[in-house]
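[job 0417] fold request received: Aminotransferase
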Amino acid sequence: LFAAVEMAPRDPILGLNEQFNADPNPAKVNLGVGVYFDDAGKLPVLRCVAEAEKQLLESPKAKGYLPIDGIAAYDKAVQGLVFGAESEAVTSGRVATVQALGGTGGLKVGADFLQRLRPAATVLISDPSWENHRALFTNAGFPVDTYPYYDAAARGIRFDALIAKLQAAAAGTVVVLHACCHNPTGCDLSPAQWQQIAATCAERGLVPFLDMAYQGFGKGIAEDGAAVQCFLATGQQFFVSTSFSKSFSLYGERVGALSVVCASKEECARVLSQLKIVIRTNYSNPPTFGAQVVATVLTTPALRAMWEKELAGMRERIKAMRSALVQQLQAAGVQGDLSYITTQMGMFSYSGLGKEQMQRLRSEFGVYGVDSGRICVAALNSRNIGPVAAALAKVMAG
Ligand code: PLP
Ligand code: TYF
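[job 0417] inference complete; emitting C-alpha cells
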C-alpha cells in the first residue's frame, strides 16, 4: 500500500524549527517562525488569558460537544471584533461566523465551502504570500495563481499591476488578501488602496477572502480592521478568516474563526447550514477551551481592557525592536536607507537578503530566518538584538 509513497517536502517555515532545534550553537537565535516572544525570549502567557483560565477552572463545566459552529458567545464576540458589533451587516444578521481551528482552520472551511460553490474558480494569492495559502487552496482543489504584490526594488507594493490583475480576472475568481501585517513582506496597503481593491472586486464580481491573522499587531485593533470596513462599505459578499493564535498567544489552543458576509439574513442561514456540513464532515465540531478563554476575555470588560493593553504592549515592543535594529545596523556600519525596517508592519521584516545570505546567517552566526529573507522581528529581544544586528551587518556587507 505504501511502497510508492513519496517523502513529502518539509514546510519551509515549520521545517526550520527542526533544523534550529538540532543546531548545537549556544548563540543560536530563531527568527524563522512567526511567533511573538517577550523580552525574556519566552512565549508569553497573557495576564488576561491566565485570569480567564482561572475563572473557567473555578467553576468547571461538563465537557459536552459544542454546537457545530462553536460557542455562540464566541462567534458573536468575533463578529464584534472583526466587523463592529453595531455594523449593519452584523445587526441585520447577514454575517455567518463559525468557530474554527485557528486561522488555518477558518481558511480551510472557507476554501472547502467555496470549492462546492465554484469548483472551477481560480484562487489568487499575493506574490509572495504565506506559503500555506498556496498549499491550502491547492489541496482544496483550486488552481492557484498570484497577483503582483511586492516590489523588491522599491520595497513597496506593485499596486497598479495588482489592480490590473484583478481587472483582468474572471468573475468568481477568489482573491486572498492579507487584511493587515502582510506575511512575509510587512508591506500593507493604504486605506485608499484598500478602497480601490474593494471597489474593483465588487465591479468585477470577484470573491474577496480576507485573512486576518495579526489584528492588533500593526497599528491597533480598529485600524488593522479597516480593510474589512472597506469591503462592508461596498455591500459585496466576502469571507474573513480570523486567528487568535498571535493576538492571545494561544497558538496551541487552535482558536480562530471564519465569517462570511452575505446579502441577507435569509441567505446567511443557508450559507451557515453549508459551512456546518463542511465542519461536520471534517472534524464534527470544534474544541472548547481556547474559545471559552477568548470569549471570556472579549466579553468581560476588565479582561477586555487588559487584553487591549497587553496586545498594545506586544505591538509596541515589536516597534521598539525595529527601531533598535535600525540603530544597531547603522552603528555597525550598514549604509543606505533602512527605513523599511520601521515602516514594515507586524511581526516580520523582509530583509531583501537572498537565499545564500540567509543560509550564511544560519551556518556562520546561528541566526535562523526564512530563505525568502524574512526575519521575525517579534523574536528579537534586548539580549539577542546585538548579535543579530552584528551578524546581519556582516552578511549585508557581503
Ligand atoms: N494566515 C497567515 C497570513 C499567517 O501568517 C498565519 C500564521 O500562522 C495563519 C494564517 C494561521 O494562523 P493559525 O496559526 O491561527 O492557524
Ligand atoms: O508564517 C509563519 O511563520 C506563521 C506560522 O505552515 C506558521 O504563520 C508557519 C507555517 C505554517 C503554519 C504556521
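[job 0417] notes: The pocket of pyridoxal-5'-phosphate (ligand 1) is lined by residues 34, 102-104, 130, 178, 183, 211, 213, 243, 245, 256 (CB under 6 Å). The longest strand covers residues 95-101.
[job 0417] exit 0
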